Amino acid sequence: MDYRATETNGQATLFFAGELDMAVGDQVGELIQQYGGRNQTVTVDFQGVSFVDSSGIGSLFFTTKELLALGKQVEIVNVREEILDILSVLGFTEALGISVGKAEKTG
Amino acid sequence: MILCEQCPDNPDCRNCLDALRSGGSAQKVLPPRSVQVTNLATMETTVAQLHAVSRTAIGLYSREHSLHGRMEVELAADFRIIGGGLRGIAGVPYYVIDIEKVLRREEVLERLLLDEFHNWHMSDELNPIDVLPDWKERDDKRGLLIKQELQKLSILRRIETIFLYLYDNGSLRSIGSSRADRDIEREMRHLVESAAGAGASVREQIMSSDGQKVFEVYASPLPDHSCGIALIDVTAAILEERKRKRREWEIYRDILAVVTKEKLLLLSDEELFFLLREGHKSLAMDLRAPEQLADLRRSFKRVLEPVGLSDKRLLQFMVAVNEAASNTLKHGSGGTITLHISTDKTLCRAVIHDTGQGIVLEDLPRVTLQHGFSTRHSLGAGFQVMLQYCDRVYLGSSLAGTKLILECVIAT
Questions:
Q1: Interface predicted TM-score of the whole assembly (ipTM), two decimals
Q2: Which of A51, B58, B139, B407 could potentially form a cystine with A19 if both were Cys, beta carbons 3.0 to 4.6 Å apart?
Q3: What is the rounded distance in angstroms from the CA atom of residue B302 to the CA atom of residue B18?
């Protein structure tokens, strides 16, 4: 899975592209952890994500939960409709109670 | 009990033995034993006292019934003597049965093997009352202890599924009223020899050579360097446990089918086999590492795109298959994934087979239905996805692993 990141004034944006599955889940979790550690807000851009599974999203879920507990803000944006449907069935949208939407901003 | 004027006060008396006309091989049975005797002409049964035995004849005391004619004497269910009865001592209800046959479990002999008789005699029905004549009155600690131990033995000996043995100086001796089959004894001997050699207790299961019976063997070295063995036939218990598990499985199957509106069906291995017999296998892949999941999805896409699944259904089906495949890595070391397409091309079925621990039956309702539940750490919604994105999910879970079949309708 590919990614690129920008950091400005305590605001990080991570642009992911590819398939988020069991093989790369931990790597994605670590990246969010790393950027969330030094920024107040992390935006995860899913525009380029074409596939997710429960293991892949699980790592993202646990990392996000930790950051939220530390008072950070985490947002997932630009989620494709079919991926949003998968996230919803996985219970991810409910479980985190964070904004999962189709923001206009793209990477 | 007075057999003749001399007995039992005179240990040197040989009246009952001489009546057997067997020379020096005759021996008294002390204490005398109650045995069931059947007159084979009339089939009437009575209980007589066994007083003397030799290789060719036995002596019975029977006050109530005369024992003339052809008799069957039952020492144990698998230890019977057949022979002709005659009055042994004039004026005394003592009868001599000349042995025709000795019926053992697996063989018919024409002589009584006295060693075998003594094993039976010494080990069976050793009543506390015979060992401690005043046992009801005895209340000293030693007496109580002996009584208690004898009572324990009496209970053990009445259980037909427990066989007791003693292994001493390389020989295996039955100390119970019956013996297990020879193949089992042979198998057991190997185990016991290693236990005796290592000086440590052994507990193992062994199976009869025809595979029909299962035994638990407990071998414990004893302080005198012999080894005590309890062999327990657990076949009935295992069968009962299987039946109970089967009933439990059927209850789970029915409940899950109702709750999921027949979307999730538990199937036996046999039912799964018949389900997959139709159609043809389009793809097979061994999954051993998460890095192969992307390959798996690509392969599925390549086969399923041409058969007419919409992009959306294809993605959903792949998500479901991917979840099942990931589970084989999470809960085991991977598995085999195959794709079958029905002959009329209206259905595709992905079969995910892993040889891991399987899903524990008690976990099934939660694994399948409760959002976020997983037996390992993960978001644990895999089953939800499969149920949501497939038209039907079949599940077979056994000790041999879990087999999942995800079904997707191609055209209605």
A1: 0.87
A2: A51
A3: 96
